[in-house]
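lol ok so funny story. i was supposed to be doing the assay writeup but got distracted and ended up predicting the structure for this chain instead. priorities right. anyway since i did it might as well share w the group, maybe its usefull for someone
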Amino acid sequence: MQNNLKSSVQTTVLFALVIVLSLFSSIDNYIGAGISVILLATLYIGVTLYKISELNPRAGLVEIADLILCFLLVTMSLVLLAAIADIHNTKLMRLRYTGYLGIDEYAGAYSLWCISIIFALLATRLTFPFRHPPRFLESHHNARSISTWSASSAVILAIMGFVGVSTISFSEQQETFLTRGQGSGNGLQALFYWASAVYVAYVVTAWKREAGRFFPALAAVYTALLFLSANRSPIALILIAILIRIVADKRYGILKSGALLAPLIFLVFSYQSTWRGLLARGAPAAPTDVLLAVTRDPLNAIQRVGFDSIDGMVLAQSLLDKGFSPQYFDPLLSVLNFVPRQIWENKPVLLGSTIGQDFLGLTAGGIFVSGPGYFSLVSGSVLGGIVLFVFAMFIAKLLISYFAFDAILCCSVLYFVARFPLAGDAFDIFLSIQIYVIYLVAKAPSTYLRASRPSYLHDLKH
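and the output, tada:
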């Protein structure tokens, strides 16, 4: 009964978000819109945190996806307020994009982005009937744990991760940041780099006390090295793994207390982005220099955190108005990107990088066109983009619900839920798939040995 009441409150808050956002946008009160979204999204998060302790882990993981989307709503609302304070510091203004109208166009794109997120939340809240997994998965859902520990898989991931983190040369970070997004053909190095993050995620979700302290100690070392690489994405994956472990162990008190530390996550990402920017410009980048830059101008730090998703949404709408051709087959690059550039020399460049270079004059990297913006460019219309985005989030939650017993798969899907609404590119889908592929590679030997074990040994064990 209480659970149904909290679900009703969640749905009511989402409808209120739509109404309030539409109302404030219609009267051009963008500050009111941003503050209202922050307050209502925070209320939704609070209700969800109280509700989640009453759910089984499978349903709890779906609620984690909603918490992530609401956290993104709060984050981008802060970015909006920073843009209102200094519109000239937004990415399209800094790049002098032709035809950019400023705050009105920016706030309009923000409203569309928020509506896409809210509809994604509403769609699953109102139409998510799949509370029971398919019959062929029922035996997995009866398992006592959502993840199983395998020392051999952990060792393989640790070795792959060691190769990855050992290739990080901090003396060459400036060059790395300046060439982000270029087709440099370093996919194998990136794969091993990500293996270190997958190793940490695996240890976080599956480690048992009897496995010893070596594995978590090494995970702590890898986490520190990943942080020092100034890349937000692996840290986000590790945070998601922690959330999954909390839900699996039903330690919801930690989750509720940890929610108070959410601003700290934003500060960490702001620190990394500012640090990366200082390194790229060749400026002093000691910890004190970075903290001074962040605290001296917090609004600038928010805009420089790298979440230029609203700028990307503006750009996507602008390109469509100028007759940009629909990119129907671009999502296929999420799979084709696994083909090394050494084999496929003319492999297409990712859409975000192409747009950044062709329309913004960027020599490296690209722009976050956002999830709705990306699907708008894929489908050829903003409405089509919103529909496809909502559908993608629905499928993601369906996968989480059906495969909740596979912690690393849930990590990869939740990582997609966290990254794609902001970034929006086939590369985000590719990264999410790559996370699970790395895990499957590490898991393959133990899976093969179990499958090839003589039947009489299996019988003796049971």
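Residues 150-462 form one domain. The radius of gyration is 22 Å.
back to the writeup now i swear
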